[in-house]
Amino acid sequence: MAEFTRQRGKRQEDGGLGSVLDLLLANARLVLGVSGAAVLAIATLAVKRLIDRATSPRDEDDPKAEQKTVEESWQDLALIKATPKTPKKQRREDLSEPLLSPAQPPAPGEAREPRVCSAPPETPRVEASPPRCLMLQEKLLSHYRSRLAVPEAQASLAPQLARSICTQLQNFLRSKFPELPFGSLFLSGPLLDGLGALAADHIHLMLPVVLDATLWSLIPGEDTVVRNPQYWLIKRTDLEYFPRGRSPWDRFIVGRYLSSNALSETLHKMLVASINWPAIGSLLGSVIHPVVASQELKLEVKHDQVELSITLFPVVEMEDKVLLAAPPEGLVENLWLESFYRAEVSKVKELDAGDSGARQHCLCILNGICKSHPALHKLSGSPLTHVVLHLSATSSDWAEESLADRFQQVLEELVGYLEKGVLPSYFNHKINLFGELLEEEIDEMGFTLYRAISEPDLLLKEK
Description:
The protein has helices at about 1-55, 65-80, 125-130, 130-150, 150-175, 190-195, 260-275, 275-285, 340-355, 360-370, 380-390, 405-420, 440-455, 455-460; strands at about 185-190, 200-210, 215-220, 230-235, 255, 255-260, 285-290, 295-300, 305-320, 320-325, 335-340. It is an alpha+beta fold.
């Protein structure tokens, strides 16, 4: 009974509110005129939608309910933003009578003459401003030159420092672990590959782990408890015929699998406790500190002209897969993350070379914007690259003159993927690149980008 009374009271309140809104709209035309009534109607509709969703009971068991609410919220935002603005001053041609000065009343025969113009009007106000896409194009290029271009001195010094540290680390590994067949260290990252370095402040150091293919095999992550196709297990095979100890990497086995965690922990202890970084830093004119608290294998380098962060990634290449020792957060161990970075860079450069496109330029701008934006920083890197690759399959005009159009189109595509909560990998459609994002993060990203579609300046402002 109490529940029935509560529901009934709720319906009465909703009905009373609806009556007030209907009465207001019915009299709006008399008070505000046609344009004012249109403004009020659209705004009232948006507000009424919000009230209906707030007062309607939610189906907690429906997994699509939350996504539907997010999409409707973005649509309501567009509805409100599309409301025409009432002009502050009425233009002369909109009046039924011409505007006249009180000091000079018109002659009786001159009342209708102001509507006829004997001479052509001056340059129309609309043509005085450049097209919107041209304005956006200029702003994007200006934003790139002023904020995203890495100074030449830093762009050359940072890789030079990283290569010197790479050489020192390679020599130490060979003396410390001569039994482990590490490959030759090499550098990677946006600064070297040109896909979105905001500053010369971060470089990846890749450490190849060379495995005997006859003793190891790959297990897809979708066949494991994580059910994630982007993660893999590296399994030790034929232990009956090739017992433990046959492979130098058997010391890092956990449950018959090569443990990315065990290998990273060994390398972390080496970086923190075994290497004389003060001596190496003095030799290179820098101060080098390993980051003790980080789960990543990270070095911080300070030089007079640049501050650099170097992250070390053990990497396994097997069966055309590139796997990084970067397991997901949580209790799951031993997993290896499949990296598409090399394929991404190669594909983007191949497409640009084929049609003289500006994909790299567009990605550099997008990555710089997302990295510096508090709500969008998790979109930088692979997600943006995969959106551009998907878009390249349907949009062939990537000339620099179309940069503004393609930029706008990438934003629209991103909003579409965020609405679904799914961004399929360009190289493996089973992989959802949004899979590890929280719903709150997706909502905030979608709301920010939805606004930016109509107002790109929101992304170009200083943060």
